[in-house]
Amino acid sequence: MMNPFLQVAIGGAFGSVARYAVYRAMPVGASGFPVATMAVNVAGSFLMGLLTALMALRWGHAYAPLLATGVLGGFTTFSAFSLDAATLWEQGQPGAAGIYVLGSVLLCLLAVGAGLIIGRGIWA
Fold first, then answer.
1. Which of 8, 58, 59, 112 has the most CB atoms around it within 10 Å of its CB?
2. Is 76 annotated as a binding residue?
């Protein structure tokens, strides 16, 4: 069995290249709307759900580091976020799922903003 860290590294390389290919293939809309990012996030989330179901029902989890964490994590980390939210919901924790979704989105937007402000201050 391949080392899980090596699986993640190899899968991440493939996923990142795939994401870049989508960005190159899909031009930004006239309004500047990030069509490629949305497409990657939706496709990655769908593939994460499909892959998780197939691993649980058919394949086992031996290659989860390669496929889920590596390929799909390199393609979009939004897929892992979506799976975590869906798992909380399916476990009968809709309140926790809602807090996770809203908290993640808000905190990540605040974090990006803080990083931009700090980064601009450092390199301005």
1. 8
2. yes
